[in-house]
Design goal:
The protein is of the alpha+beta class. The chain is built from 5 helices and 14 strands. Helix content is 21%, strand content 30%.
């Protein structure tokens, strides 16, 4: 999450949480297993419902790969509290915004861990969700066109190539969404875009609960994310700013596996190890100064909506 010194990013995180939790609750309602209204929370009470623009009441989310999960966050920081929680974990800026927020009891904290919290959030099985989104687009009459766009002639050249690929018959393009991620660095071009390398390990079994452990002030982190319904769990992770290498490191994978053992012992086999299915590396598309989310009007009045640079929050 963002820090209190980044109010715009805090607002973004808040709306993202409400929207995703709202989708999860809608999926449960559609499946006939209940569901609750997701709203802003202030001192534990409901403050406001989602805005109309955030409503997913007219959407069908069943099959989107969403699942409510309890998340445990443990802050070790060498037994030294951070300024963000110097008055207790309830002083975290987002504590009143998430559902079911509570502090972990001392006996729930491993050695060396200063504090911990739990709250309800949502997990996303990304392959299932992407398949869900594609089916939804096609149901509305959308088409999927695969084409490599030129990135050496500037944005206008790339848009012209996209228009030629997408136009059918007398149809024409009246708007674009530029969600090109790390490729925006060359395509726009935008030199503020840079990669944040991350490596994860996929293991067999679904963890009973999400877990995150922030290890020290350098930002090193361990995390466990269930891929709901897939029988697998993602373990992480790393954060390397400006690194373009996409080759998985065996040494890094071993460090991730070792660091996550105490977080999800339920997935260890009789020999005390995980059953590893794969290791993968991704480049989070970050941007100096934060994400670019804005509408640009071209000379021919065509609209282009820029949405890139969200790093790991994309």
């Amino acid at each position: 999450m963002a820090s209190p010194s980044e109010p715009e990013l805090c607002a973004w995180d808040t709306e993202a949480y409400r929207t995703w939790m709202g989708m999860s609750e809608e999926e449960k309602k559609e499946a006939g297993v209940g569901g609750r209204m997701i709203a802003g929370r202030d001192s534990g009470s409901l403050k406001k419902p989602l805005r109309a623009g955030d409503s997913i009441a007219d959407s069908r989310c069943v099959g989107a790969g969403l699942q409510d999960e309890k998340l445990l966050v443990r802050l070790s920081l060498k037994d030294v509290p951070t300024t963000e929680i110097e008055n207790g974990v309830s002083s975290l800026w987002w504590s009143s915004l998430v559902l079911d927020f509570s502090a972990l009891a001392p006996d729930e904290l491993p050695n060396g861990v200063h504090a911990g919290v739990s709250y309800t959030t949502v997990t996303l099985n990304v392959p299932s969700y992407l398949d869900f989104i594609l089916k939804k687009i096609k149901a509305y009459g959308g088409r999927l066109v695969r084409k490599r766009l030129p990135d050496d002639g500037g944005l206008i050249v790339a848009l012209a190539a996209a228009r030629n690929a997408a136009t059918v018959g007398e149809e024409d393009v009246f708007a674009y969404v530029n969600a090109t991620g790390i490729s925006a660095r060359k395509l726009v071009p935008d030199n503020k875009v840079f990669p944040v390398r991350g490596q994860t390990v996929l293991v067999k079994g679904e963890a009973k609960v999400l877990r995150t452990r922030i290890q020290d002030r350098s930002g090193k982190i361990k995390y466990v994310i269930t891929r709901s319904g897939s029988g697998t769990t993602i373990l992480g992770g790393t954060r390397e700013d400006g690194v373009w290498d996409t080759t998985a490191s065996a040494e890094t994978s071993e460090a991730i596996l070792s660091g996550c053992k105490d977080l999800i012992p339920e997935l260890l086999n009789a020999n005390g190890v995980f059953e590893v299915l794969s290791s993968q590396v991704g480049l989070r598309p970050a941007r100096q100064g934060g994400p670019r989310v804005e509408v640009q009007v071209l000379e021919d009045k065509t609209l282009i909506v820029h949405s890139y640079g969200h790093a790991g929050a994309g």
